[in-house]
Specification:
Length: 407
């Protein structure tokens, strides 16, 4: 117990110190409930009219979008058309909270000024169409762009925002995030160790990254790279984050697309990258040199909860398909839906979904009320990032089992 009390006290001290260095104001609700309901109704209509009916077409076009050698991915025409329609229907950049929007360049597409709690409902709805974050991409609310946009908004210079944030908010370019490395346990951000050395006004980068989402897209023009610039500094001050101009930087090789269950997830997907004597101007540092670990912690809060919000939508989609299957299939003289074991599974899944939704909404509310640096907020974010994907995996497995050979 003494150890736990000491750990808690140290954590409070560190977080308070960090908050003084760069505080994050609470997000105040500026969109009234009736206006928010109109936005939600519009998104629901968009999902039913344009997203669900086109899921198979999107899958087909996505598989055809890989380009030569499977390494030059492009947006399917369908997603280009839907992005324009989402803009026109006011469903663009819905993820961008009001506090981040204030930091973006004037004249940009700044979303609707929603709170994190309001966005939870919309992100869940977009999450019901799961392949390559189809609906989220159509609304410019897909990872890793959302996290990258908020990172540049909060930590970028005005020049960096004009150059990279404005076109990202417009949807005219995409981005990727290079943090995970094959040689270290990258869940511990202090392990990140790609070699970044000083050379005059530049950094020179050598090493490897992998699971860089979106790096294979020809629309991807900027990368946020995390690496070790100051190996002799204190553990949490060794890393920095750099903006990399992918169109004008030599020495970066797309080694290979990485697959999950044999699928490379084009045109979103994930790549292994190799860096050989890559030169990056020191002016491309985000915030300050040695702040990479702290930026990573701030970035991961919204990124993690957005994935959890979408996971709730995936759970609902799995439950819906499971229920439909149970009502249609007959085995040993009666529908599967009449079997006690199936009814018990459905009831348990409903309880699990509602429980996860409650925790995600609670975390989103804490982000709005107390900010991302608050200890209670960070604890709740850590809880949902562990619980929600595990629960989704369990629900998806049970839904697959009920579908028998169709899986």
């Amino acid at each position: 117990m003494a150890l736990l009390r000491t750990t808690t006290r140290v954590a409070h001290t560190r977080l308070a110190h960090a908050a003084r260095r760069r505080s994050f104001a609470a997000v105040t609700q500026t969109v009234p409930d009736d206006e928010f309901q109109n936005i939600k109704d519009e998104l629901t209509s968009f999902m039913h009219d344009r997203i669900y009916p086109n899921e198979q077409l999107f899958l087909k076009q996505s598989h055809a979008s890989r380009g030569k050698d499977g390494r030059e991915w492009t947006h399917p025409q369908l997603i280009v058309d839907l992005m324009q329609e989402a803009k026109q229907r006011g469903l663009w950049n819905l993820f961008l909270p009001a506090d981040s929007a204030k930091l973006a360049p004037s004249g940009s597409h700044l979303g609707r000024g929603l709170t994190n709690l309001q966005y939870a409902d919309l992100c869940e709805l977009m999450g019901t169409s799961v392949h390559f974050e189809f609906a989220a991409t159509a609304c410019n609310c897909a990872s890793p762009d959302t996290g990258n946009m908020e990172t540049i908004a909060r930590f970028g210079t005005e020049e960096q925002k004009e150059k990279w944030l404005a076109p990202l908010l417009d949807g005219s370019i995409r981005s990727c995030f290079a943090m995970t490395e094959p040689d270290v346990a990258s869940s511990d951000a202090t392990n990140i160790s790609i070699d970044i050395r000083d050379d005059g006004d530049d950094f020179v980068v050598n090493g490897r990254k992998w699971w860089c989402t979106g790096a294979g897209s020809l629309h991807c023009k900027v990368m946020i790279l995390m690496g070790k610039t100051d190996p002799d500094a204190k553990a949490f001050a060794q890393q920095s984050m750099l903006l990399v101009d992918l169109a004008n930087t030599e020495g970066i090789e797309l080694v290979r697309p990485l697959t999950v269950f044999g699928d490379d997830d084009a045109p979103k997907g994930h790549f292994e990258l190799s860096f050989t004597d890559v030169r990056i101007p020191k002016s491309n540092v985000l915030w300050q040199r040695g702040k990479g670990f702290e930026i990573a912690q701030r970035r991961l809060g919204p990124g993690r909860i957005h994935h959890c919000m979408r996971c709730i939508g995936q759970m609902e989609r799995a439950l819906a398909t499971m229920a439909q299957r149970a009502m249609k299939r007959v085995a040993f003289g009666k529908p599967l839906a009449a079997r006690d074991s199936v009814l018990e599974d459905v009831a348990r899944i409903r309880a699990e979904i509602d429980g996860c939704r409650h925790l995600v909404r609670e975390a989103a509310s804490l982000m709005d009320l107390k900010g991302n640096t608050d200890l209670e907020t960070r604890q709740r974010l850590s809880l949902v990032k562990a619980l929600v994907p595990h629960t989704l995996q369990s629900i998806a497995d049970r839904a697959m089992q009920l579908h028998g050979g169709a899986g």
